[in-house]
Design a protein that fits this description.
Helices cover 80% and strands 0% of the residues. By secondary structure, the protein is mainly alpha-helical. The protein has one domain. α3 packs across α11. The longest helix has 29 residues. The protein starts with a helix and ends with a helix. It is found in: Cell membrane. It comes from Pelotalea chapellei.
Length: 301
């Protein structure tokens, strides 16, 4: 791969990653409007409507051959089964956190995720960090450690979100399948279970959809688009960027969650939160400076 091609791939990956994390950053707004609907039911709707949306996209782009190839490969299918389990856990825990008014803890989880990504990249993919990257990582770790120490209890929501999404990113980076085809396979694997659960709720008349008088139920069909779009963007970014780069992009989402929690939802913002932000954004500044220096060095070779 030439330097120009590598730069183009990186630029595309950055655009896809930024869009994905911005969409995820405003997810609490959407799920807050679904207040009163059980998290498991919301997850089931996310899966079912995502299947429908992705089937339409796949049909329009005529990528059925990629989907068939994924099902025929035992290695690819096994990896996607693992990624499906991880992303389902992540969805359920996040929706639970929003429903229980724990947006700050969910943001803590997504602050921790980049650290998990960097660790996984070094261990499994043998990615190397330059001195400025190491310094920025240490600053981010310090910020997260300070925030974690003030929680007063094991932040299981944050830990579950961080590890599930970190491992999901690793699997999607290593599996040889296009982003849209891989996501369609993931949703198809859980689609029958999700649809069966929703049918059972409908028969039992305990479900929230369809119910024209319920604003939440009217919003549920949008779950497919809002779920699939950032995941397709993320998978595309993951295949073009190093896990360390993906890791620092992920600070966009928890930063937006923090802002929403404090300014919109009235959750407490303490000096500890302020110190954490200062450390993390200082680390991001160092990492960005290193990326610019590295880019210029390669350009002048």
């Amino acid at each position: 791969m030439t330097i120009t091609t590598e730069h183009n791939q990186t630029r595309q990956g950055l655009i896809y990653g930024l869009l994905a994390y911005l969409i995820w950053g405003f997810f609490p707004v959407y799920f807050k409007m679904l207040h009163g609907i059980p998290p498991l039911e919301v997850v089931a709707h996310r899966i079912v409507w995502s299947v429908l949306f992705l089937l339409i996209l796949t049909a329009c782009s005529r990528r059925w051959s990629e989907v068939r190839a994924a099902f025929r490969s035992r290695q690819v299918l096994a990896t996607l089964i693992g990624s499906t389990l991880l992303i389902s856990i992540n969805w359920l825990v996040f929706i639970y956190a929003v429903a229980k008014g724990q947006v700050l803890q969910s943001s803590l989880g997504y602050f921790m995720t980049p650290l998990i990504n960097v660790l996984l990249g070094v261990i499994f993919l043998r990615e190397r960090l330059r001195p400025l990257q190491i310094a920025s990582l240490l600053m981010a770790m310090a910020g997260v450690a300070i925030l974690t120490s003030r929680v007063g209890a094991i932040p299981w929501i944050a830990l579950a979100l961080a590890f599930s999404f970190g491992l999901y990113g690793l699997l999607r980076k290593t599996v040889r399948v296009e982003s849209m085809a891989g996501l369609l396979v993931e949703t198809l694997l859980t689609g029958p279970l999700a649809l069966g659960y929703l049918l059972w709720l409908a028969i039992d008349q305990s479900g929230s959809f369809p119910n024209a008088t319920d604003r939440g139920a009217l919003l549920l069909p949008l779950a497919g688009i809002l779920t699939a779009t950032p995941l397709v963007l993320f998978a595309s970014a993951a295949r073009r960027l190093k896990l360390a780069t993906i890791g620092f992009l992920q600070y966009i989402t928890p930063s937006l969650h923090f802002a929403l929690a404090v300014t919109v939802y009235g959750e407490t913002f303490t000096r500890t939160h302020l110190l954490t932000f200062l450390l993390i954004w200082s680390g991001l500044a160092l990492y960005s400076a290193d990326a610019v220096l590295s880019f210029r060095t390669k350009s002048f070779r």
